[in-house]
């Protein structure tokens, strides 16, 4: 009675299923490129935000200088405080609008990047799946053919 080495057959069959590391490397490169683009958007927004904050601080300090000077009449102090409060409210409105514009720009850039990445990933995934399907089909056919041949051999030697 002939014995078939099923362990060897299983090892051969598993070796027939290829693992393509190029796809993993490509996915890593794609992710790194996406991260670089997102970092650029974030850093640009942070830079613009810092510029707005700096401008706002400088303006507020210049207005503080006006209220800290000695006044001739008590009413002048009240007027200086009122002017400062009015200028502060105006500055807040102006600078908050600038922050909103920065946030809007970040949102638009992020959506554009996500849409582009989605298209790229979809195309890459489709190509990878088609290749994997073809490779698996070929490997499964080869394994099936080997199993059939081994079974026929085992059957023939058993007779």
Written overview of the protein:
- The chain has 159 residues and is mainly α.
- 90% of the residues lie in helices and 0% in strands.
- The chain contains three helices and no strands.
- It has helices spanning 6-16, 21-67, 74-158.
- It is rod-shaped and about 125 Å long.
- It starts with 5 loop residues before the first helix and ends with a helix.
- The model has no long low-confidence stretch (mean pLDDT 84).
Which segments are poorly predicted (pLDDT under 50) over 5 or more consecutive residues?
A: none
SS-based class: mainly alpha
* Rg calc: 35 Å
Percent helix, as a range, is over 70%
Helix run count = 3
Termini gap: 9 Å
Mean pLDDT: 84
Write a brief caption for the model:
This protein has helices at residues 6-16, 21-67, 74-158.
Q: What is the fold's blueprint, element by element?
A:
Layout: H1 6-16, H2 21-67, H3 74-158
Task: Please name the defining characteristics of this protein.
mainly alpha, 90% helix, rod-shaped, single chain, 159 residues
